[in-house]
Amino acid sequence: MIRPRHPAPGKAADAGCHGRRGRGPSGARRRRPTPECGWDQAAFRCGRCGAEHTATTEADYLKAIGVHGDAHAVWDRLNAIERSGVASILRTILSAPDLAAELLALADRQPAETGTGEAHRRRPAPPADKKGRAGRAPGPRRPAAGGDGDR
Fold first, then answer.
1. Which of 11, 30, 93, 138 would bridge with 7, disulfide CB 3.0–4.6 Å?
2. Distance from chain centroid for Cα 75
3. 72 and 49 in contact (C-beta within 8 Å)?
4. Residue 55 scores a pLDDT above 50
């Protein structure tokens, strides 16, 4: 919902601030309305969750809509446990901006300090047999090929 400002005193409501829509006092076209006329704020109300945001510039309005849409996209991907965890973490971090900065710095330093990387993500090699040869992990034996397995 966008609410227009009231026209300047002495001007008719339907004539606009300068009598002609989109033109200044000299008759020249104007790109943006002056603060004395035009829009003073725009309010956004989400149809999915009912959240309301108000912005005073078009850029802020578009940013509010984009960020809110992105928040819905992320929230929709999470299950109930993840939503609870994310909400708890955000409450903690947003209550202390210095903590957020330190956590980001820690996250940036952490991989280099612990050495975690690609090597820890690979599966371990199967253990060697009694003679030191690499092989399969011990487990149930399979019957030989072509045999009936009951011998």
1. 11
2. 9
3. yes
4. yes
